[in-house]
Every structure is written in structure tokens, then in C-alpha cells.
Amino acid sequence: MNYFVIGDEDTVLGFSLVGVAGLAATTPQEAKSVWDKALEDHLNAVIIITQDAADMIRTVVDRYLFSEAFPLVVEIPSPHGEGKSRDIRTLVNDAIGVSL
């Protein structure tokens, strides 16, 4: 089971210091390309993605968050982002399509 990180250069560098492979993405095209590359390796069981990178390809990420069983997607705050995270209520509302 491997981990793979997608995000800004600082995040990818930080995770690489503890042995987690990953690639930086600064544009939506790069984010989609890196996402596809992460999915190609079936040993990647956990994809860690920064919120900024996830926002660039939100529909793709949400599909895996809400409907796919594998790999596990973990969205983390971006170090240089607005600090605005999606709360659990928002995630549930998006997943089931009903406002709680």
C-alpha cells in the first residue's frame, strides 16, 4: 500500500521527506494529469491532495470521495490557501444531494 500526494511544491517536498511520493500541480491541466498518473499505479491506496489542487479538479475528486471505494482520497488544507475548509455537513450534503 502506497501513499501519493498531489499539491503545491512545498507540500510535495514535505511529504517526500517522510517517503511519500507525489507530484506538484499548479494548473487544472497539471492537476488532472497528476491525478491520472496517481490512479495508474494500483499500489497507490491513499491519495493525499491539497484543497487548492482538489478545487482545480473538484468534480473528479468528488466522484472518488463519494462513490468510488478505492483509492482512499484524503483532502488536506493548502498551506497557502484561504484556510477555508469544507465542513462535514457540506460534505454530507454534497454526497447525498439533500441539505441537512
From TrEMBL:
<comment type="similarity">
    <text>Belongs to the V-ATPase F subunit family.</text>
</comment>
<keyword id="KW-0406">Ion transport</keyword>
<dbReference type="InterPro" id="IPR008218">
    <property type="entry name" value="ATPase_V1-cplx_f_g_su"/>
</dbReference>
<protein>
    <submittedName>
        <fullName>Vacuolar H+transporting two-sector ATPase F subunit</fullName>
    </submittedName>
</protein>
<dbReference type="GO" id="GO:0046961">
    <property type="term" value="F:proton-transporting ATPase activity, rotational mechanism"/>
</dbReference>
<keyword id="KW-0813">Transport</keyword>
<dbReference type="Pfam" id="PF01990">
    <property type="entry name" value="ATP-synt_F"/>
</dbReference>
<dbReference type="InterPro" id="IPR036906">
    <property type="entry name" value="ATPase_V1_fsu_sf"/>
</dbReference>
